[in-house]
Specification:
By secondary structure, this protein is α+β, with helices and mostly antiparallel strands. It folds into two domains: about 1-75, Ubiquitin-like (UB roll), CATH 3.10.20; about 85-150, [2Fe-2S]-binding domain (DNA polymerase, domain 1), CATH 1.10.150. Helix content is about 35%, strand content about 15%. It has helices at about 20-30, 85-90, 100-115, 120-125, 140-150; strands spanning about 1-5, 10-15, 50, 55, 70. α2 (about 85-90) packs across α5 (about 140-150) and α3 (about 100-115) crosses α5. About 35% of the residues are buried. It binds FE2/S2 (inorganic) cluster (2 copies). One FE2/S2 (inorganic) cluster binds next to loops.
Length: about 150
C-alpha cells in the first residue's frame, strides 16, 4: 500500500505491506534505528515517537495508519549539533545506563513536560508508567526530567 507522511521534517512516500508495524517501518525502511524495540507486547515504551504531536508507542500502530501523519523520532529533536533540553538533561544527570530505553524515555518525557511543565516527582513517575527501564532504578531519569522541565518551561 502507498503511504505518504512527514518524518523529522521530511516528506516521504513509501510502499508498505498492510501488516508492517510502524516501528518496523521506521527502523527497517527508513533506517531510523534510534527508535528501539524492547518487547512484543506494547509494554516497554522503547519505541516511543511523536505522532501528530502525541507521544505514542510506534509498535502499537501499523505503518498504514501513519498515512498523512507527521512524525518525529529521536533523530529529529535536536537542533543540529545542539541537543534538545531533554537530551541535555539526561546527559547531565546520568539519566541512563545501557541506554536501551533512553530514546523512548526522552520522547515520552518531552510530551509529559510540554503538557505540564510544573509536574511533581509523583506526576513524572506516573507519567512514565508506559516506559520501562531495566537498569537505572528511575531515580536519575526523574531528576533529568525535572531539570529539563525548568529549561523547557522558561
Ligand atoms: Fe513498543 Fe515495547 S517495543 S512498547
Ligand atoms: Fe538500560 Fe534503561 S538504561 S534499560
Amino acid at each position: 500500500m502507498e503511504i505518504s507522511l512527514k518524518i523529522n521534517g521530511k516528506e516521504i512516500n513509501a510502499n508498505v505491506k498492510p501488516n508492517t508495524l510502524l516501528s518496523t517501518f521506521i527502523r527497517e525502511n527508513l533506517n531510523l534505528t534510534g527508535t528501539h524495540i524492547g518487547c512484543d507486547t506494547s509494554q516497554c515504551g522503547a519505541c516511543a515517537i511523536h505522532l501528530n504531536g502525541d507521544a505514542v508507542k510506534s509498535c502499537a500502530y501499523l505503518a498504514v495508519q501513519a498515512d498523512g501523519a507527521e512524525i518525529v523520532t529521536i533523530e529529529g529533536i535536536s537542533n543540529g549539533d545542539e541537543l534538545h533540553p531533554m537530551q541535555q538533561a539526561f546527559h547531565e544527570n546520568h539519566g541512563l545506563q545501557c541506554g536501551y530505553c533512553t530514546p523512548g524515555m526522552v520522547m515520552s518525557a518531552i510530551k509529559l513536560v510540554e503538557n505540564n511543565p510544573k509536574m511533581t516527582e509523583d506526576d513524572i513517575r506516573k507519567g512514565l508508567e508506559g516506559n520501562i527501564c531495566r537498569c537505572t532504578g528511575y531515580h536519575n531519569i526523574v531528576k533529568s526530567i525535572k531539570d529539563a522541565a525548568t529549561v523547557m518551561g522558561r
